[in-house]
Write a structure and sequence with these properties.
Blueprint: H1 8-29, H2 31-43, E1 45-52, H3 55-66, E2 69-72, E3 83-90, H4 91-99, E4 105-110, E5 113-117, E6 157-159, E7 165-167, E8 174-179, H5 180-186, H6 191-195, E9 201-202, E10 214-216, E11 219-221, E12 229-231, E13 248-255, H7 259-262, E14 272-278, E15 286-294, E16 298-309, E17 315-327, E18 334-347, E19 351-365, E20 372-373, E21 395-412, E22 415-437, E23 443-471, E24 474-495, E25 501-503, E26 523-540, E27 545-562, E28 565-586, E29 589-600, E30 619-631, E31 635-651, E32 658-678, E33 681-696, E34 713-722, E35 729-738, E36 741-742, E37 750-751, E38 754-767, E39 770-779, E40 787-790, E41 796-798, E42 803-811
Parallel strand pairs: 2-5, 12-14, 20-22
Antiparallel strand pairs: 1-3, 4-5, 6-7, 8-13, 9-10, 10-11, 13-14, 15-16, 15-42, 16-17, 17-18, 18-19, 19-21, 21-22, 22-23, 23-24, 23-25, 24-26, 26-27, 27-28, 28-29, 29-30, 30-31, 31-32, 32-33, 33-34, 34-35, 35-38, 36-37, 38-39, 39-42, 40-41
Length: 812
């Protein structure tokens, strides 16, 4: 329901009665009772996500969220731009933010009521008089998303797969949900830019390459060919190689294995799960336009338009579009990207439905490529971050088109039926190789130079039912879900007959090498994943103890093809359980623990093994985790310890038998902080300490070694300060540190630790009642030269040089 106003010209008796009641009631209750009541009221907190263009609108929305009666008998001054009130806080704190800089104040007048006051006019007016309009608030339309936490950078909860949206204090696992405000303020180009705010996450591939990969808690998440990023909980819809951030309302990361929650991912990632929450039309019309420049000489802009229609605003339309083109900061490179994302939704009394359509394209001339290092050589130092080892005649073109239909229906007040169907196609044509460094002087060969054409067709369907009920004073939230995912990969390859070479410190122009396009794209693999899952979250003692139990039966079928015929086939299934517990001794503290498993496809013994063709069972990753979460209304944090073990296969050098006897063990400690230290100072970040080891191995020489690309410490810390000397100006800085990483399994080659500093500012103002936001960022201010990371295939990436970018956003 939208806010309503009571006009005193038509309802003067009602208005006067409401205001006078709020004035007289405290005196009738007595001094001590009033003081006690006021203390209790002041300490009660609510979650706000408000953008108000006037004091009156702000009063209406605060009252709508909380049910408080907020009266005023004064003329309200105009404000410039919009007042943003976001996060969990008390009503007085929210009103303070609304009135900041106006000279107005307030007085609590009773239970859930206060009145706005102009101190400068108190000598000439009575607070008991009602001469101007008095606003009485009703509830506003509630979003189906967890609300934004104080500071606006993260949300108070996120989607836990089949468990649905869950408050972070109720979640038995570690989850972070980055907001659209954080995405915009960071000027993030891709979701990888945003996820690197998490100290447990790294995106080792360069942003100037044609693919993003991730490492979560030291385990790789691969976007190659089949997308590991889910879109509103569904796999197979988000673009595969890279995901632009313009379509995202939230970017969520659940850390640790999560086979029960989300089902097995397309390639079996176990370090964590990434989910994109798409943008939906809000309650207010939106016309947002932005223009930006930087990251070299890239020029572009974005549009964000939304509307709601119908007698009760039940139909919503939102469109996000973007286009960028120009030279990047990398030598010889030009990049062109475009995005079109259309979201349609319907909100009825019992039925909710949505349709998402996505078209994303990226064309790169001279795409950056990760580097391989020959065994046995000393690792050379990193060249300047603008160095490009790929030539202008090498390129990559990617086209992603996808769609998703979702619906849920409240069959009864406590029972909801839900379902989804979606899919997409990714087509990538590219011509480039893999620079391989051959000596410590930095000489390299462009090994594997080839013209490749990839096509991935994928679709997924899911359905289920969730319900709430009670048994013996125990509250239950039970969910049953069935899922199906399929993909087909086609690939054509034409290899070059010449291998170009150069040096990483003097990567000059190389004469073009002619490579013909592949004539066909034969099918190379098919994957089918089927799952059935059941879970129940039980609440004891007024929700102070939450216990989640569940299990998923997962079937895995993978066929590989060669020359049109099946060359190998894998078909197996396994049951993966989960147990989680949350204990909340008070409203500020949540203790949690979990046991949960992850799942990856097993392998088939290679032809060279004594047991050639024999398939292993699916690889199971097991996590034990415990921790504490804190929420003090405006600032929160968490501390967690975890252990993850993951199986893998290898051939015994003595018996020549291939088996699943390898195991990687990652133990870690995570400390995170988020929110507002004061109303003008915000923090986001933390640290992860990681102890990783190959603790079981069929090859004795590998046992006890540290896995490739697993640093023992990662630090992120972002601070923001709303300056008192310039209204609307915010300064920010981000410190990022990653310690040493090994490049090879023998732990003889490594890249050193690195630290970067980013500085930024934003300025919010209003021109002719149009809110304007100016943003500017300088990354890697000290222009460090560094290798940024190592992925699971031993590819290393070059860190970006000092680079700047600016943008301007206007809401019309």
């Amino acid at each position: 329901m939208k806010p309503t106003k009571i006009n005193p010209k038509k309802n003067s008796l009602i208005s006067a009665f409401l205001v006078s009641t709020t004035m007289v009631l405290p005196g009738a209750l007595g001094v001590n009772a009033a003081a006690a009541a006021q203390t209790e009221i002041t300490q009660s907190t609510y979650v706000f996500d408000i953008s108000a263009r006037s004091i009156a609108d702000g009063v209406s929305e605060i009252g709508g969220v909380t049910g408080w009666r907020i009266a005023y008998a004064i003329e309200l001054p105009a404000i410039e731009g919009s007042r943003i009130i976001q996060g969990r806080m008390t009503v007085p704190a929210a009103v303070d933010m609304l009135l900041r800089g106006t000279g107005l104040t307030y007085r609590v007048t009773g239970e859930n009521s206060l009145i706005l006051i102009d101190p400068s006019a108190q000598g000439s007016q009575s607070e008991n008089a009602v001469t101007d309009p008095v606003l009485i608030e009703t509830s506003v339309v509630q979003s189906d998303l967890p609300s934004v936490y104080a500071g606006g950078q993260v949300a108070t909860g996120g989607r836990l797969g089949m468990l649905g949206n869950t408050d972070i204090m109720d979640a038995p696992v570690s989850i972070t949900s980055y907001t659209s405000q954080k995405i915009a303020d960071q000027q993030a180009e891709t979701i990888a830019d945003v996820l690197q705010n998490d100290p447990s996450v790294r995106a080792p591939n360069a942003e100037t390459a044609n693919i993003d990969t991730y490492q979560i808690r030291g385990f790789g998440v691969n976007l190659f060919n089949t997308g590991e990023v889910s879109f509103n909980g569904s796999y197979g819809v988000a673009p595969t190689y890279r995901v632009l951030s313009g379509m995202a309302e939230r970017i969520e990361v659940v850390k640790g294995p999560n086979a029960l929650l989300n089902g097995m991912s397309p390639t079996g990632a176990v370090g964590g799960a990434i989910n994109i929450v798409p943008k939906r039309a809000g309650d207010e019309d939106l016309n947002r336009v932005s223009a930006d420049y930087g990251r070299g000489e890239q020029v572009g802009g974005n549009v964000d338009i939304s509307r709601r229609f119908g007698d009760e605003d039940q139909f919503g339309v939102r469109f996000n579009g973007g286009y960028h083109n120009g030279d990047t900061y990398l030598d010889r490179q030009t990049k062109e990207t475009s995005l079109g994302a259309l979201a349609l939704d319907y909100k009825g009394e019992r039925l909710r439905a949505s349709i998402d359509l996505i078209d994303q394209r990226e064309n790169l001339d001279a795409p950056a490529r990760e580097v391989r290092v020959a065994s046995g050589i000393t690792m050379p130092g990193a060249p300047d971050g603008s160095t490009n080892l790929i030539q202008t005649w090498e390129w990559s073109d990617a086209v992603d088109r996808s769609g998703l239909v979702q619906a849920e229906y409240d069959a009864f007040d406590t029972v909801t039926v839900f379902g989804s169907f979606g899919g997409g196609r990714t087509e990538v044509d590219r011509l480039f190789g893999t620079p391989t460094i051959t000596n410590s002087a930095g000489d390299y060969n462009d090994v594997g130079l080839s013209y490749r054409r990839f096509q991935t067709d994928r679709w997924s369907v899911s359905g289920g039912v969730r319900g709430e009920f009670e048994t013996a004073e125990i509250k239950h939230k039970a969910t049953f879900e069935a899922t199906r995912y399929e993909d087909v990969l086609r690939q054509g390859i034409s290899s070059a007959t010449v291998i170009p070479s150069s040096n990483i410190y003097a990567a000059g122009d190389i004469a073009p090498v002619s490579v013909s396009a592949p004539a066909t794209k034969p099918k190379t693999s098919e994957t089918e994943l089927t799952g059935f899952a059941l879970s129940d979250t039980m609440a004891f003692w007024d929700d102070q103890v939450l216990v989640t139990l569940g299990a998923r039966h997962q079937s895995i079928a993978v066929d590989s093809f060669r020359n049109g015929a099946i060359s190998s086939s894998y078909d197996d299934s396994v049951i993966t359980p989960m147990a989680g517990v949350v204990v909340k001794p008070n409203e500020n503290v949540s203790l949690y623990a979990n046991y949960i498993e992850g799942l990856s496809p097993g392998e088939i013994a290679p032809a060279s093994a004594a047991n050639s063709g024999e398939a292993t069972s699916p690889y199971v990753a097991k996590q034990l985790e415990t921790g504490v979460k804190l929420d003090f209304g405006s600032i929160g944090g968490s501390l967690s310890v975890f252990q993850i073990t993951q199986q893998s296969g290898d051939t015994d050098p003595d018996t020549n038998v291939f088996s699943a006897d390898n195991e990687q063990r990652n133990r870690g400690l995570e400390i995170n902080v988020f929110g507002e230290v004061t109303p003008s100072v915000r923090l986001l970040g933390g640290v992860m300490f990681l102890d990783s080891e190959i603790n079981k191995s069929a090859d004795p020489t590998k046992k006890g070694k540290r896995p490739v690309g697993t640093p023992d410490m990662q630090i992120n810390l972002t601070g923001e300060w709303d300056t008192p000397f310039a209204k609307g100006l915010t300064l920010s800085s981000t410190l990022t540190h990653t310690s040493q990483q090994f490049v090879d399994a023998a732990n003889t080659q490594d890249i050193p630790d690195w630290t970067t500093l980013d500085l930024g500012l934003r300025y919010k103002t209003s021109i002719d009642n149009t809110p304007i936001t100016l943003r500017a960022t300088v990354q890697n201010v000290t222009d460090e030269k560094y290798w940024s990371g190592v992925n699971q295939w031993r590819f290393i990436s070059l860190g970006a040089p000092r680079t700047a970018f600016v943008s301007v956003t206007a809401d019309f």
